[in-house]
């Protein structure tokens, strides 16, 4: 189907089809949610092709011209800025984070603090994903034929402590992490996910061979295409399973 084949009537019909028993105000709310998702999809479509153009050697001047803006405006829109607060990451995203993905962000921050690092970078995210044993990321690594221990070893080999010094207890996200989380949103949208899971963050980290995390994953033998196929299979089966609830024994 061509992009120009989409029209307003199709979108209206889709909202009405999902809200057959809804009140008029409930349909307004459903339309708002649909518009939010469509806007996110539109933004990430452009970002996808900007990334592709950059990988193929296009300059920011050329990209700005294609978008009808200046080089500086294009960079401000698509180059991730470091210093984003970990707690604020969820509010920036077009989709909510899963419970496990949220826990991963907190664990990555703790790892950065323990290593006296000023930023939460992509290696912190990767190691935190691997420690979340029940998450979709770990399942995807195993199903791709790669040992989690091998990925952890290659990632830790690249992670160095900066030595004792006074650091904040809440280091912000580094540039590579901000970019990875932005791409994770895109991956979730492409796989029709309702939320950003650990598997989407892993896929985002593996998609960029220029980063420390991307290189660690490749060195451990993780093939991006195989990983993406596995994450797609997970999405078809419902992605991450909820953690088992513990029952308290009565005395």
From TrEMBL:
Transmembrane segments: none annotated. Residues 93-238 form the Clp R domain. Keywords: Repeat. InterPro entries: Clp_N_dom_sf, Clp_R_N. Residues 232-251 are annotated as: Disordered. PROSITE patterns: CLP_R (PS51903). It comes from the Bacteria. This is Clp amino terminal domain-containing protein, pathogenicity island component. It comes from Actinopolymorpha cephalotaxi.
């Amino acid at each position: 189907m061509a992009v120009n084949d989409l029209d307003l009537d199709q979108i209206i019909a889709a909202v009405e089809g999902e809200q057959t028993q809804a009140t008029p105000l409930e349909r307004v709310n459903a339309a708002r949610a649909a518009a939010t998702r469509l806007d996110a999809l539109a933004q990430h479509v452009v970002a996808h092709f900007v990334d592709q153009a950059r990988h193929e050697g296009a300059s920011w001047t050329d990209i700005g011209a294609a978008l009808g803006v200046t080089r500086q405006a294009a960079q401000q829109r698509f180059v991730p800025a470091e210093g984003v607060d970990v707690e604020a990451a969820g509010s920036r995203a077009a989709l909510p984070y899963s419970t496990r993905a949220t826990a991963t962000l907190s664990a990555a921050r703790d790892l950065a603090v323990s290593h006296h690092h000023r930023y939460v970078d992509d290696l912190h995210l990767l190691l935190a994903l691997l420690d979340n044993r029940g998450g979709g990321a770990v399942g995807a690594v195993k199903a791709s034929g790669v040992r989690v221990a091998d990925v952890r070893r290659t990632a830790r080999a690249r992670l160095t402590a900066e030595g004792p010094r006074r650091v904040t207890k809440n280091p912000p996200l580094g540039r590579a992490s901000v970019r990875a989380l932005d791409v994770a949103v895109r991956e979730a949208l492409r796989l029709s996910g309702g939320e950003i899971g650990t598997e989407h963050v892993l896929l985002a980290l593996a998609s960029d061979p220029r980063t420390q995390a991307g290189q660690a994953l490749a060195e451990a033998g993780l093939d991006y295409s195989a990983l993406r196929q596995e994450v797609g299979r997970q999405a078809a089966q419902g992605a991450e399973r909820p953690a088992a609830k513990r029952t308290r024994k009565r005395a």
